[in-house]
Amino acid sequence: MTLAGLSLRDLEYVVAVAELRHFGRAAERCAVSQPSLSAQIRKLEETLGLALFERTSRKVLLTPRGEPIVAQARVVLDEARRLMALADGSDGRLTGRLRLAAIHTLGPYLFPHILPPLRSIWPDLTLILSEGRTDALLEELRDGRIDAVLLALPVESDGLVAEPLFFEPFLLAHPIGHRLCGTPDLLLGDLDAGELLLLEEGHCLRDQALAACGLTARGGGVHATGLETLRHMVAAGAGCTLMPLLATRGVDGSTAGVGGLVEYRPFDGGKPPGRVVGLVWRASDPRDRGLRELADLLRRGTPAGTEPLLSQKVD
């Protein structure tokens, strides 16, 4: 086997199929026809002398021998991007493509705020946005499948750079006519744990809500799969919940109230419950300078009602 049988483009094809588990969608991402992509992957498999994928009529799976090959392909592609960054004179600035992800409870509400300034300052930067849960996104980040993540800090940052951006308070979301509607000076102690609605396990916001209310993880009860379902459960009168500030309003500042059925109220009594939102990327990324510039931009343009943060403010 010689290096002449390998190409970076073929490795991009392999990684795309491994991530999307679909040859057609992988071909669309790589801007190539599906027959061409399939043929090149077959050729690469012949060169390597092994099958990378298990192909069925329903899905595409990585073979056991294919998993380490794809992992190493990501490393090779990452190093190739590092080489190009050094060669094009960008000096670590953001150029080309940036794969930016966010946790489910943040992305839909923060992306509309940050896209206009990003497009204005880096018009030639190609943004690829995605969402997921914290653990899965950090795994994708470490594997090189994404470049940076917007999530709640702190996180295990071995090999990563974690820059805090802002503190986002939680508001109480309760249905109109709820017993707390007329309560002055709302405190966390006013909540009834039995009526607290939560996201299902695996969402960091669930753990943050439980911690804010001084509760331990609990099973049973009714849980929502996403923040919008949680909001509608509140509107239906099923209970109340802690809602991140950005999720309570539109980009224009209007209230996301599900037809006026949900009321949002801030907590009194000192610092409100909330979360620290930060930007995380690999410490080895050659665009460290540009990613720090991105963090500074996001910090300076924090949405109304949030508090910009400096690094030393995160424990």
Automatic annotation (TrEMBL):
The UniProt entry's sequence similarity note says: Belongs to the LysR transcriptional regulatory family.
User: Which InterPro entries does the protein's record reference?
Assistant: LysR_HTH_N, LysR_subst-bd, WH-like_DNA-bd_sf, WH_DNA-bd_sf
The HTH lysR-type domain is annotated at 6-63
Q: What is this protein called?
A: LysR family transcriptional regulator
Q: Domain of life here?
A: Bacteria
Q: Which Gene3D superfamilies match?
A: Periplasmic binding protein-like II, Winged helix-like DNA-binding domain superfamily/Winged helix DNA-binding domain
Q: Recite the UniProt keywords alphabetically.
A: Activator, DNA-binding, Transcription, Transcription regulation
Signal peptide positions on this chain: none
Can the keyword DNA-binding be found in this entry's annotation? yes
For this record, an example GO cellular component is: protein-DNA complex
Q: Name one GO molecular function term.
A: DNA-binding transcription factor activity
